[in-house]
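BACKBONE GEOMETRY TOKENS:
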Amino acid sequence: MAEDPNTWDVETRLVRGGMARTPYGEISEALFLNQSFAYESAGAADRRFSGEEPGFIYQRFGNPTTQIFEERLALLEGAEGCRATASGMAAVHAALFGCLRAGDHLIAGRALFGSCKWIISELLPRYGVETTYVDAVDPAAWRNAVRPNTKAFLIESPANPLLEITPIAAVAAIAKEAGAKVIVDNVFATPLYQKPLQLGADVVVYSATKHIDGQGRVLGGAILGSNEILNEVYKDFLRHTGPALSPFNAWVLLKGLETLELRVSRQTENAGKIADVIAAHAKTKQVMYCGRPDHPQAALIAEQMTGAGNVIAFDLGSREAAWRFLDALEIFDISNNLGDAKSMATHPSTTTHRSMTEEAREEIGLTQGWVRMSVGLESARDLARDVDRALDKA
């Protein structure tokens, strides 16, 4: 191909990136539903396993359909490489365990998705890894937490569920001084609206289940970074522990990438309108949305993000009010997923962040009155009517 894909605009990358056609010339990417691959000879198998000869060996190590997904997502992210995983949490788990050993120290922001918090609080200590939680918005807090054995920083920004923003470039500079790797969970921003690698991060992780699929069909995840870190830190870990993405799911996610920019743009447009409706209602105590000027970190958002995304969080004062609101919705689904074409809302304290103690939730400001909302592709007018009516009943 004479064209360099790196010169393409985002829309072209999402449709054409990583394309590899079979001799049949199919337009839609081929789906390779197979576990293993045959070799022309014993010597060819030897060369393939030694790495002397390129090619596929086993579905757990790689697959043609999965490779197209990895190359397309890497092109979108601006990363040298990508390794797909079976879910977003498989990506987070692998990203952490690949970087950390017994006796190492991790620093993480306090505001994290519940399953991420469980890995850090419950699983890592079993293998001799200590963690310090910090106020993620404050670079000084990250710097003060550094120890001689600090090997990784974990950032979730915007954070789930209250959309707290970490100054990624400032924190990455601190990590670089300490010789630690920076891992950023970029799922809320999507690869369209924030580029952590350009801000100094070493690794970016995604739950492709969310916006990349965007239609409630399959699980998937991804780890992105330089070829050096992917080969030296993650290659063997992923091969031998087996969190492989299925080829069918990779194919579905490829179809999702084709429409990602269209969907996220419309979802963001809708979310801005719904956030204004929520903010204007008398029952609302507080609203957090990355596209509103009253977000406490609006200046930082303008500096490191190019779009607000489709997630809104708002406080109705009590669990009873939050539940009344959720139960009164007629178009929005009550669901803990996000990034879907369908609009969804959930009560984080009793769903996504249920595994956290009440004390830990209060520490990040997540009291019982908060609702997290993922705005979809329905008519903004219909969604606004549904939300306004439900707020009246809150």
